[in-house]
Design goal:
Protein name: Ubiquitin carboxyl-terminal hydrolase 39
Largest sheet: 8 strands, mixed
CATH topology of the largest domain: Cathepsin B, Chain A
Radius of gyration: 29 Å
Structural class: alpha+beta
Shape: elongated
EC number: 3.4.19.12
CATH architecture of the largest domain: Alpha-Beta Complex
Family: Belongs to the peptidase C19 family.
Strand content: 15-25%
Number of helices: 16
CATH superfamily of the largest domain: Cysteine proteinases
Organism: Thrips palmi (Melon thrips)
Distance between the termini: 86 Å
Number of domains: 3
Subcellular location: Nucleus
Number of strands: 25
Length: 500
């Protein structure tokens, strides 16, 4: 009789165990109470004989977390032997089938970060697996973040490659180099990086019900932590999940299969992040505005039509319509206009590339220089006065001009110093007096090579821990002398204000 009772208890335990691990099982209330009792009694296995079958070289957690068979994102497990993703771990699931057919036994739940042995279906607890967990979800505490910019320690990937955290290549899936250079440049903006390295900083941000735009923030945070991960398995990162979120939330304006403009992407991305973080018009409402937001005054006056005589023009200039209008406008970056290249070349200047000084371009914002803007009906003269410099100043050097037939690129080289650039020279004395510091250093320089609409992008980055400059073009990372940076066709630059 006792044996019958024991067999019945074992049958109930086995039945409940099957229900727990069957992902599709719907519990009723009686089941739930029994399951809770069962879970409280079950023992967790701590030893697994299959740990030596794990192949860390094939593990890649940069891609979308979806099942390779069903393409579902629900309850996905990574096989730690072959690196593929499968759904579930119950008896009829894809992970279970894969385990039985291929004799692959160790799996990681990509959401809960727990390890399981299949088909035996028990949890594995072993400290030797912590490195895999860290690669999937790198975490940074405040002490670690403080040391990021002073450390020159190299890290070693699993294949023996040495790399500097923060100076790792980004995979070019097809034509996303225009996104890669922006993501790399933003990863070296210190307050932005420090904010996104700690997930707790933005974990409490609440979005309206049904709004999933916050996914963009999460993906950028994940990418930032992977770029600065000192314990990576490989010396490069794939921005696949980040770019999938970009394609989705830009409504396919920015694609990974078609070349785009980094300036358009930068403008959209900064504003999208600001909105996703519940930013408002206030300058301190998000980390984006705190880092990049500046302010300027725009003086606009209308120009009379050229066909009118002097007397009519003078009369018009006295009317209200033709008086100068002053508006204040915030900005996240400044657009610098290059002088037009020479139209004709003779034998003596055939190989000479035109050059211009950066301060000549910045004269546009000194509140004195005027620039003509033409519309279909009216013409305007505008001058600009910067009244607030941001902590990080982004300059966009406008190289491409569109006409009726094609896009033309201006190859003019901009001469600029890498250190100690005084932007106070373009401020009025009253505005400069309000700024404690107006000296800036270059931290990122994005370059376009080749023809307009085609070509490629690369970025130069300053690694503060070593004090060295690096050139990054997708997966290729090389060190570069700062003197060589000034000889390139600079397109976008990020300057950092020096500390007092």
């Amino acid at each position: 009789m006792a044996d019958v009772v024991k067999d019945e208890k074992d049958k109930i335990r086995d039945d409940l165990k099957r229900k727990i691990y069957d992902d599709n099982h719907a519990f009723d209330e009686d089941d739930k109470s029994e399951v809770k009792k069962f879970i409280g009694k079950q023992k967790v296995h701590r030893l697994c004989p299959y740990l030596d079958t794990i192949n860390r070289q094939v593990l890649d957690f940069d891609f979308e977390k979806l099942c390779s068979v069903s393409l579902s994102r629900i309850n996905v497990y990574a096989c730690l032997v072959c690196g593929k993703y499968f759904q579930g771990r119950g008896t009829n699931t894809h992970a279970y089938t894969h385990s039985v057919s291929e004799s692959h036994h160790v799996f990681l739940n990509l959401h809960t970060l727990k390890f399981y042995c299949l088909p035996d279906n028990y949890e594995i607890i072993d400290s030797s697996l912590d490195d895999i967990k860290y690669v999937l979800n790198p975490t940074f505490d405040s002490d670690h973040i403080k040391c990021v910019d002073v450390s020159d320690k190299m890290s070693r990937a699993i294949d023996g490659t040495l790399y500097l955290p923060g100076i790792v290549g980004l995979n070019n899936i097809k034509a996303n180099d225009y996104c890669n250079v922006i993501l790399q440049a933003l990863s070296h903006v210190t307050p932005l990086r420090d904010y996104f390295l700690r997930e707790i900083n933005y974990a409490r941000v609440k979005r309206p019900p049904g709004d999933s735009m916050f996914l963009l923030v999460q993906r950028f945070g994940e990418l930032m932590r992977k770029l600065w991960n000192p314990r990576n398995f490989k010396a490069h990162v794939s921005p696949h999940e980040m770019l999938q979120a970009v394609v989705l939330w830009s409504k396919k304006k920015f694609q990974i299969t078609q070349q785009g403009d980094p300036v358009e992407f930068l403008s959209w991305f900064l504003n999208a992040l600001h909105m996703a973080l519940n930013g408002t018009k206030k300058s301190d409402s998000s980390i984006i505005y705190k880092s990049f937001l500046g302010s300027m005054r725009i003086y606009t006056r209308k120009i009379p039509a050229t066909e009118l005589d002097d007397k009519q023009k003078a009369a018009m200039l006295l009317t209200t319509e033709y008086q100068e209008v002053i508006t204040e406008s915030p900005f996240l970056y400044l657009t610098c206009d290059l002088p037009p290249p020479p139209l004709f070349k003779d034998e003596t200047v055939e190989n000479i590339i035109p050059q211009v000084n950066l301060y000549t371009l910045l004269a546009k914002f000194n509140s004195v220089s005027e620039k003509e803007y033409k519309t279909v009906k009216e013409d305007f003269m505008k001058r600009f006065e910067i009244i607030q410099l941001p902590q990080y100043l982004i300059l966009y050097i406008k190289r491409f001009t569109k006409n009726t037939f094609f896009v033309e690129k201006n190859p003019t080289i901009v001469n600029f110093p890498v250190k100690n650039i005084d932007f106070g020279d373009i401020l009025t004395p009253e505005v400069k007096a309000r700024h404690k510091q107006t000296i800036y250093n270059l931290v990122a320089n994005i370059v376009h090579d080749g023809e307009p609409g085609k070509g490629t992008y690369r970025v130069h980055l300053l690694h503060k821990g070593t004090g060295k400059w690096y050139e990054m073009q997708d997966l290729h990372v090389t060190d570069i002398l700062p003197q060589m940076i000034t000889l390139t066709e600079a397109y976008i630059q990020i300057y950092e204000r020096k500390e007092d």
